[in-house]
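Handout, section B. The chain below has 331 residues.
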Amino acid sequence: MEQFEFILDFEKPLRDLEKQLQALETVSRENRVDVQSEIDSILEKIERTKRTVYENLTPWQKVQIARHPKRLYALDYIRAIIEDFQEVHGDRRFRDDPAMICGTGRLEGRPVMIIAQQKGRKTKHKILRNFGMPHPEGYRKALRCMEMAHKFGIPIICMIDTAGAAPGIGSEERHVAEAIAVNIREMSQLEVPIIAAVIGEGGSGGALGIGVADRVLVFENSYYATISPEGCAAILWKDRAHAQKAAEAMKLDAKELIKFGVADEIMKEPLGGTHRDPDTSAETLKDSLLKHLQNLKSLDIEQLLENRYRKYRSIGVFLESESYEESSNIG
């Protein structure tokens, strides 16, 4: 992992206290001076500040944590909780897409198909993986692997972490919108359990292209939305500087997703984000996946598909108007 310090604006008070703590520990170690009482005092302040900062995050601050460069990515979770992972490459039409990781593995001994979006950490890996924005071939590779899972009766686990599908001429020339649309259609009919976990960003159709699932899990500082806050601000206010206002209006954080029926469970994070305690974060995801896989296992195929259909039909609010025949007779 690339070593660098990255502090969000609202984390600076906490970072200042941590620097004071480091300075005191250095003085104590180098000069053999007893400053334990001062260290204890700062530790208490750090704990209070952590709770003040992280337990009252705004939607925009949660978006920033979801994008934190030290946040756990899909490969971190795969290495931590998936055994015998074997990656599959290529869509058998154009090329392989490193932004979309697909392959088989075992979760607590149970075979699973993993479909995941990976951003990359070092500069060369970010470029290789296109910053986690899949091209059409990424979605077609994902569909190829999901159809394989359907054939062999293997549950599918999707890890969502993308700002959106790859923009650009090449992506459009190879029909990225069509690739996402086909995935949405086919995922609705796959006769195996599907669980999608939003582990970071869940942006636009780029996320939805692997997001049609029986259960949608969301880490508490992740977000899931039809557009990024910056994109929304650029459309509504003609200025990306209004991203914070857009994030609040979009209702994109985990609690709102549960409220509107988009997500089924919020997975708790360590204070400050998943990168603050990677082992605990990985165990949290693992426990949630196992729980929901066990619940879905008891359903027969017909009930599984019916529940999946009802889940997406019930999202949102709509009003029924008069029928065309009635409205055409008015006047």
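Note. Residues 9-56 form one domain. Compare this with the example in section A.
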